[in-house]
């Protein structure tokens, strides 16, 4: 399927590795010009180099609203417009249930909710000036949809992100902007959580997959990137306000 992304400009946050880098790479392969953003200069520059001349590297901590605004201004200065925003910053690493503190709630919500809302707020005026299909895709998690053993702070932040996507769909549609989320299940990436768990106890991971996941395997960053790229493309022009699950059949409701 041709996704009609030639000459589109995309901005991907959290793009130096894992799902974010896979998304940026896939968008570029479909013809988009891609701005990769992350907090670490060395990592984002290295990631950008793997894509080539259609990509640019930007250093920003988008949990800071001012940094998010400056990032969008940098992309506008370079490319002139913005058609696609992918909000990929997030982390499920937190404290066990019952040990939450005010500081931990703030940290996790900053990473998993405000990093996205800051970017949406910063990018919205520029995206609204555009023409044709414009799209925002937020990376959520199935943890925002069911209690699966993740930290409570993470559940709450991702559930709030899903609600934000649904709530913004109508007002953004009036500006020609679609917004959706992708909720991945268990994804295996280099140096990720599941790589560590496999190294610690592969049998326990295999047992979990046999018991909990219909497809009985972990997903890949590239599989999530394919879903995101479709949602970001004009081929998904009638989809907005949705949270699309890509979890190998783990959720059961």
Overall radius of gyration: 17 Å
Q: Sheet with the most strands? A: 7 strands, parallel
Query: CATH top level?
Result: Alpha Beta
Instruction: Kindly report the average pLDDT value.
Output: 95
What is the correct CATH architecture?
3-Layer(aba) Sandwich
User: Can you list the strand order of the major beta sheet?
Assistant: 3-2-1-4-5-6-7
How many structurally independent domains? 1
Strand content: 15-25%
Low-confidence stretches: none
Question: Count of DSSP helices?
Answer: 7
* Rough outline: globular
Number of strands: 7
**CATH homologous superfamily classification:** NAD(P)-binding Rossmann-like Domain
Distance between the termini: 30 Å
Tell me the CATH topology.
Rossmann fold
What percent of residues adopt helix (DSSP H or I)? 40-55%
Content-based structural category:
alpha/beta
Order of helices and strands: EHEHEHEHEHEHHE
């Amino acid at each position: 399927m041709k996704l009609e992304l030639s000459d589109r400009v995309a901005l991907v946050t959290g793009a130096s590795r894992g799902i974010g880098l896979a998304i940026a790479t896939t968008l570029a392969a479909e013809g988009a010009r891609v701005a990769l953003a992350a907090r670490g200069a060395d990592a984002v520059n290295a990631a950008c180099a793997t894509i080539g001349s259609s990509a640019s590297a930007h250093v920003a901590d988008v949990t800071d609203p001012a940094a998010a605004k400056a990032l969008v201004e940098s992309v506008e200065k370079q490319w002139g417009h913005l058609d696609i925003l992918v909000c990929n910053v997030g982390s499920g690493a937190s404290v066990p249930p019952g040990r939450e503190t005010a500081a931990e709630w703030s940290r996790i919500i900053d990473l998993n909710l405000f990093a996205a809302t800051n970017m949406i707020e910063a990018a919205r005026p520029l995206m609204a000036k555009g023409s044709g299909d414009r799209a925002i895709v937020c990376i959520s998690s199935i943890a925002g949809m069911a209690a699966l053993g993740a930290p409570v702070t993470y559940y709450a932040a991702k559930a709030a992100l899903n609600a934000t996507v649904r709530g913004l769909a109508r007002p953004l549609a009036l500006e020609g902007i679609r917004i959706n989320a992708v909720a991945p299940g268990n994804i295996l990436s280099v140096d990720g959580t599941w790589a560590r768990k496999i190294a610690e106890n592969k049998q326990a991971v295999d047992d979990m997959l046999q018991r909990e996941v219909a497809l009985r395997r972990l997903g890949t960053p590239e599989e999530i990137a394919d879903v995101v790229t479709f949602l970001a493309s004009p081929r998904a022009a009638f989809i907005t306000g949705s949270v699309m699950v890509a979890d190998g059949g783990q959720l059961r409701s």
